[in-house]
Amino acid sequence: MAVYDPKSAKAEEFINDEEIKQTLKFAEENKNNIELIDAILEKARPKKNEKGTTCAGLTHREASVLLACEIPEKVEQIYKIAEEIKLAFYGNRIVMFAPLYLSNYCVNGCVYCPYHYKNKHIPRRKLTQEEVRREVIALQDMGHKRLAIESGEDPVNNPIEYILECIKTIYSIKHKNGAIRRVNVNIAATTVENYRKLKEAGIGTYILFQETYHKESYEKLHPTGPKHNYAYHTEAMDRAMEGGIDDVGLGVLFGLEMYKYEFAGLIMHAEHLEAVHGVGPHTISVPRIKHADDIDPAAFDNSISDEIFAKITACIRLAVPYTGMIISTRESEEVRTKLLRLGISQVSGGSRTSVGGYAEEERPHDTEQFDVSDQRTLDQVVCWLMENGHIPSFCTACYREGRTGDRFMSLCKSGQILNCCHPNALMTLTEYLVDYASEKTKKVGFELIEKELEKIPNEKVKRIARENIESIKNSDRRDFRF
Ligand code: SAM
Q1: Which CATH number fits domain 89-375: 3.30.160.340, 3.20.20.70, 3.40.50.920, 1.10.10.10?
Q2: How much distance in Å is there from the Cα of 6 to the middle of ligand 1?
Q3: Mutate-to-test residue for ligand 1 from 97, 253, 367, highest number of ligand atoms within 8 A of CB
Q4: From its phi and psi, is residue 215 left (phi > 0), alpha (psi between -120 and 50) or beta?
Q5: Which tens digit of pLDDT belongs to each residue from 309-326?
């Protein structure tokens, strides 16, 4: 039997089934142990010291006890601490992005995804470079600066050379005041050599959802194709880091397996990356299965309620306080509103999940990967965020200044976010408002920016930020960032 070892290079040792089962048993036995729960909550709470605010985070066992706990008063405390951590490390900024589907050709047999190779009644499409250009211009015209490219796995139709060519095209397009400044990549697990090529192409985060950490279920849910190989998929982030990519994004597709198992596996994966590479995941995504062409979410019997979903989000926030958290338009406005408070730091807006969807007037459905619940425009999403007290941020400065991996984590831990990310967010939001926003969004936005400028602690930074915002409003772009 495999032994648990977070530092091991083998998937079955760092995501050890026996350790997860023991963790779930421990969590179940202690879910009413008030003394232990209070000690875990105390450990999770952000604390001030002479260097700023720090947070200890939680082990997978500790976090699993909180997830199992159903005592209403304690669950309320989990939510409250999640909010405190969110504000301490991310403030009220929310980073904006959009997915860009390049190709739905796929050789895998994933049973939850409509792109599985047996699905013969959807058209297969792959963007030409001219079509990539059209999509990117449509995205730039909405105001997006950060994309996550998505593709099925098909070595013939979508080889790495195709993905690299698309990245090059995306970065090359400068349309009006638009530019895509960070391309994150969500493509199938690949080799160290290919990860190195992606790094050289200037990608931001490499995102790969584990789908499920439960090996037996994983193999059933991915019956055919290269994705069937659990170890190859689970060890992908180690290869990505070996290839020089230091921002990696984890995720579980909630609904496939029992959520408590997935949660423990996810936190163990984060612990493994920290133990081996000295830096945890840059982001964690929390997608849930959605209806799609030939996919009925009801066919998966591990679906989770909105309430459990919120609790999972809050417990992830407590366990890995320095990791960004992403929620997509798979979720409705209502669910997104609630989760934003509990630790989400990135949201997508105005998304289309079809290949070539942005260049079309009407939302096309034929190649959609899943139904989008939040169908509002980016302008509506930006306005809604601001009305709820968040600052939509189009900033990509960390990536452009080389503040990735542990350098980003140090910035996060140093408490300098209010003197750095906060003014950057306000300046990039000003650019968005001037270039793309409706009159209503502009009004809400400029009022918010005035208020938020006051929160910058350093007087010099505040003055420079104010001057830059004024010059952006007067159409004088300086591409300045802290
Ligand atoms: N083909 C790549 C791979 O295998 O990782 C890229 C990922 S795919 C374009 C993006 C993600 O969408 C998948 O990892 C999966 O978690 C999610 N997805 C697939 N089908 C879905 C569905 N029906 N509802 C919600 N999310 C889905």
Answers
A1: 3.20.20.70
A2: 26
A3: 253
A4: alpha
A5: 999 999 999 999 999 999
